[in-house]
Design a protein that fits this description.
Elements (H helix, E strand, L loop, with lengths): L2 H26 L2 H4 L6 H23 L3 H23 L1 H7 L5 H22 L1 H16 L14 H10 L7 H23 L1 H13 L5 H17 L2 H19 L3 H14 L8 H10 L4 H29 L13 H8 L3 H13 L4 H18 L12 H32 L1 H13 L3 H15 L5 H11 L1 H6 L4 H14 L8 H10 L3 H11 L6 H7 L9 H23 L8 H15 L9 H17 L15
Helix pairs in contact: 1-3, 1-9, 1-19, 3-4, 3-6, 3-9, 3-19, 4-6, 6-7, 6-8, 6-19, 7-19, 8-19, 9-12, 9-18, 9-19, 10-11, 10-12, 10-16, 11-12, 11-13, 11-15, 12-13, 12-25, 13-15, 13-25, 13-26, 14-22, 15-28, 17-18, 19-25, 20-21, 21-24, 22-24, 24-27, 25-26, 28-29, 28-30, 29-30
């Protein structure tokens, strides 16, 4: 009975997905300028979101079992398509009418918001849906909240129009990242898989790291740290390297959510790595009038701790899940792989050259690299696998459908950001809580960290740093925190918003590639990056972690911090030379915390480091590895 509808609906889904990709590619290639057409970013985003929401309703209709749901979904798709494209086409006139709050615009905004919310649950789950509803409720009723949480009163008509049409709401930076930047990189990744390049890189990774447990994940961490240092864009880093590394990690036995978390965490931290550290580091040098070399050196110890922590987690997780070295007979020849697939390096060389030498926009560089990849794929394949002309259109359609969840979740994130803006919650909270903290450095640091994560939601690195450096960092400096430490502190926590729910854009992008839940990937990212939430506090209270001290102090502080991170991570993961008991996990965590506590925070705290080191020695002697590897656990968790 439903078979006749499935063919046309699937065809419409593919058409809509194709249009999403072509829209993004055309905009990235400045096609509208060559045609003499002026297009605002918000018009592009409205069109892209409309296609995504329409595709979502078509997918619901295609998979529904009841005729009523099917008809309702098709009707919703038609209404969304009409209303959404009217918003995109007549956007300039609509924004001119917005201040007058006309009823027709309230109705239009309500349709768009309802279409988004109806797509959130089937696309990304109930968690984001509930969070967005709570923020929208605060936007409407925040003026009834007590004390400092009270916001200005906002009418429903004003809130709906602002969230649906303003460039600081749903059509804002978060959605722009998805539609403009991520889609071209997703297409690049799909092409890599279709032409054999993914197999080439997998063979290369196996040849390089296959002899070590968790090798593919370690390759992902290394690649993302290097690429992220100079890209300055956590999400761009995820989609640029994740299209290769995440499938490799999944094939190695890591769960999709964990593979996505490794990529998201490593990609986010790339901007902490000297010498480039993304564009924000140069702005920091200019704002605080400090030589860039000093910032680079101050950031180095914390960057080392960040990536050592990820490597430790990957290694221990691989050990616990018995993801041991690949058998020697299954490891391909590195030289053989290079001879068969050396040409796949050319598109990446073009991508890096366009990004860093030509300073090309990330999305345009991705389009250029995709064109080069197409050329080399048609001419040369990899071990018999080669692109064919008939594969291109289905691949483009598949890319659009793959981008669907990310576009919807980024639009939902835009609602959260919009509520923060229109209610004044972000700025009011900043001023009042910083004042309430008084001169207590620890309380102020904790509050500052929370504010930095909130203000960093969905914002690009440069924007969030400038905002935090202006609003929050001066308070830390006033209570005696060194100026570089204060600015690095807010910079780090602003970046961590990329992997911290509810607006964890890097985690969402990685989850999309991994085929995992956005929420589950974000939670895994937080667990993986737990030391990153601690390290900034360490260098506020430990000058040696920003190279402000003797070499002996710097080396001792780094060594005990790494040891502490290793033991706490071992306790969290449940593996230390072997799987450990609950009591052993507790002892590892306690010893690790003692080693992590800064020796300079209070007189006599050097002894906590000493006790932590001694505890490590005792636990190393107590917990002996088993004679034989235990059977591999189920790899789905």
């Amino acid at each position: 009975m439903e078979a006749p509808h499935r063919g046309p609906l699937l065809w419409l889904e593919r058409l809509s997905g194709t249009l999403i990709v072509l829209l993004s590619i055309g905009y990235a290639g400045d096609l509208h300028r060559y045609l003499g057409v002026s297009i605002y970013d918000a018009q592009l985003l409205a069109a892209g979101l409309t296609l995504a929401l329409t595709t979502g309703f078509l997918a619901i209709a295609r998979t529904s079992v009841g005729s009523l749901l099917k008809v309702a979904s098709l009707l919703a798709a038609a209404v969304t398509l009409g209303v959404g494209f009217y918003l995109a086409i007549d956007y300039i006139n609509i924004t001119m009418e917005a201040p007058y709050l006309p009823f027709w615009l309230v109705a239009l905004s309500g349709v768009v918001l309802a279409a988004l919310m109806l797509n959130v649950v089937p696309s990304v789950g109930m968690g984001i849906f509930v969070v967005v509803l709570l923020f929208m409720a605060y936007g409407l009723f925040g003026h009834l909240m007590p004390g400092e949480f009270r916001s200005r009163e906002t009418m429903f008509s004003e809130l709906a129009i602002y969230l649906a049409t303003d460039a600081n709401g749903m059509l804002g930076q978060a959605l722009k990242v998805a539609v403009v930047i991520v889609v071209p990189y997703l297409l690049f990744g799909k092409l890599l898989s279709a032409c054999g390049a993914a197999n080439f890189f997998n063979d290369g990774a196996l040849a390089l790291m296959g002899r070590y447990r968790g090798g593919p994940a370690k390759v992902a961490v290394t690649a993302s740290s290097l690429f992220g240092s100079i890209s300055g864009n956590a999400v761009g880093n995820v989609v640029g390297t994740g299209v290769v590394t995440i499938p490799m990690m999944k094939r190695a036995g890591f769960s999709p959510a964990y593979a996505g978390a490794v990529e998201a965490t490593a990609s986010t931290g790339g901007q902490l790595v000297p010498p480039v550290m993304g564009a924000a580091a140069f702005i920091m040098a200019d704002m605080i009038q400090v030589d860039y070399v000093d910032i680079m050196l101050a950031a180095l110890p914390a960057a080392i701790l960040y990536y050592v922590a990820i490597f430790i987690n990957v290694d221990l997780r691989a050990g616990k899940r018995n993801l041991l070295a690949v058998p020697a007979d299954a490891i391909p020849s590195g030289w053989g792989a290079l001879k068969a697939g050396w040409h796949f390096i050319i598109p990446f060389a073009v991508l890096f050259y366009a990004l860093f030498e030509l300073n090309m926009r990330p999305e345009r560089a991705a389009v250029l690299a995709t064109i080069v990849l197409l050329v080399v794929s048609f001419v040369m394949g990899y071990k018999g696998q080669r692109m064919k002309a008939r594969d291109i259109l289905p691949l483009i359609a598949d890319t659009g459908r793959s981008a669907l969840d990310l576009i919807i979740v980024c639009a939902a994130a835009g609602i959260i950001i919009g509520v923060l803006n229109i209610s004044g919650l972000a700025f009011n909270l900043t001023m009042n809580i910083v004042a309430a903290a008084g001169s207590n450095v620890i309380v102020l640091a904790v509050i500052t960290a929370l504010i930095s994560v909130v203000l960093g939601m969905g914002m690009p690195t440069v924007g969030v740093y400038i905002l935090l450096a202006t609003l929050v960092a001066p308070a830390l400096v006033e209570v005696g925190v060194p100026v570089i430490a204060a600015h690095l502190f807010v910079f780090y926590f602003g970046l961590l918003s990329m992997v911290t729910p509810p607006v964890a854009l890097a985690s969402f992008a990685a989850a999309n590639i991994a085929g995992a839940s956005s929420w589950a990937t974000s939670i895994e990212s937080m667990k993986l990056a737990w030391p990153a939430y601690i390290v900034p506090f360490l260098f506020i209270f430990t000058p040696a972690l920003i190279f402000d001290g003797t070499w002996l102090e710097v080396i001792w502080t780094l060594a005990t911090a790494i040891l502490g991170i290793y033991m706490v991570t071992a306790g969290i993961v449940g593996f230390f030379r072997r799987s450990v008991t609950l009591a052993e996990r507790g002892m590892l965590v306690v010893a690790g915390i003692l080693a992590l506590l800064p020796a300079s925070i209070l007189p006599g705290f050097i002894w906590t480091d000493v006790v932590g080191v001694i505890g490590f020695g005792i636990l190393w002697a107590m917990i002996r590895p088993v004679a034989q590897a235990e059977p591999a656990e189920a790899r789905a968790g």
